[in-house]
Amino acid sequence: MSQKIDYSSSTLGDADTERRFEAALSAARQGDAPVEPHVVDGQELLEGAPVERRDPCLVDVVVGRAHEADAALVDRAVAAAKAAAKGWRRTPYAERNALLLAARDELAGQVPEISAIVSAETGKTRLEAVGEVQEVLDMIAHYTQLMADNDGYAVQQTSTETEKNYDVLVPVGVFGVISPFNFPAALLVGMTSAALVTGNTVVLKPSDKTPRSSGVIARILAEHLPAGVLNVVHGGPETGKALAATDVDGIAFTGSSAVGWQLVETPRPNGLPRPVLAEMGGQNVAVVAASADLDDAASGIVRSAFGLSGQKCSACRRVVVERSVADELAAKIVERAEALVLADPIDPAAGLGPVIDDTIATRVDEAIALAAADGRVLTGGRADDLPGNWFRPVVVTDLPIGHRLTREELFAPFLTIIAVDSFEDAMTEANAVEYGLSAGVFSADPEQVDTFLDEIEAGVLYVNRAAGATTGAWPGVQSFCGWKRSGSTGKGGLGVHYLQGFMREQSRTIVVDA
How many domains does the chain have? Predict the structure, then answer.
């Protein structure tokens, strides 16, 4: 690739990547998708009820297949991970790093092909899909570098002639990793590689909506590791529940708030607590002051609100704007939203794909009807001329303060605009939700920016960012840390404090022989 693609990129800029992506996407749509196996103790298994994934752009085409693991198979995977745990945690971190970086090298050679499978299962545009797979590479590089920079998180503290004192972070043991559909490559690798690099073994359950893209990446990782270190069990919610019910020592999860907090509150079978690193979405806000550059604000809001059809934890859901510029900003947002091209990702001009399934589509239909009754729909709705669940970007205004459409996460291409009388009122409304993942501000007033940074109740913040008002976090650049109901730990993936969540502290005092 001639340039590095991330979530702020506007083009791929590489003809070979474009060609390889299109060829791979066409191949993935031939209807003969391979069955992704479970991986348990290094063995590939085809057990359980079949699972199929259809292309959300071409609803008659099967692009992914797997089998659903039952509780017995999940138990076998956990047993394999426990058996491998001692050997893996005793492997020097430099050797663990080397194995993960070797897997990264293999993945790097297949970026367009893996990106095409991601597009086939999720409907992502090529730019979004390639950016995601590039993030996989940077995620592994970032976490292995953190281990090296911190010398494996082992520190010798003040010692005497007779005692040596060490403070070390050691792996928790076996982590259950439950990954979502919307970033089947990046979030899977982010949680899994963090667990592995810190010396934990893993039982991974990918989303049943993305078995092929998740399965391809997980198998490449597993093939570079000792048997039992990374085990993969496919399936839906019941498989996830079975994994949570086992004696895994920790859980890493990305998904809905309801499921995430249920996992936090679920102890191990022996009653002991365990760490649960959960990232759980948001009702993310862009605060726009009267002094803001409205073109930058509109660009950043539209980019964040409608990328992946709003199916991102960090997507902009709400705009809170000072009333004096609300109409002008709304007009600019509508203009940019209506310019987005709804198309199959095989089309280079595609700017928006379908939502993933009927569940989200029904939720959007209901929200549009409610918005029309209680407010005003400025633009958007179902695209009935396209097969499947396609929606033109929905922009809504004039809802009463506190309306549930401004409080509940739809996970869809649906944006509300709320006009208020002052910047102070905007901050009050911005914080009036249970979530606290990401937020952005647009203002030319340094005091307002300082107020926003001091008072906003969210973990990922952006100031005057036309490339994305609330989205675009990248490994080693931003941390992805949720507050309130958006995160269970207050620490975020991608950043410098995430790895510590997969380890526990131990103090060692060793007497020195005289």
Answer: 2
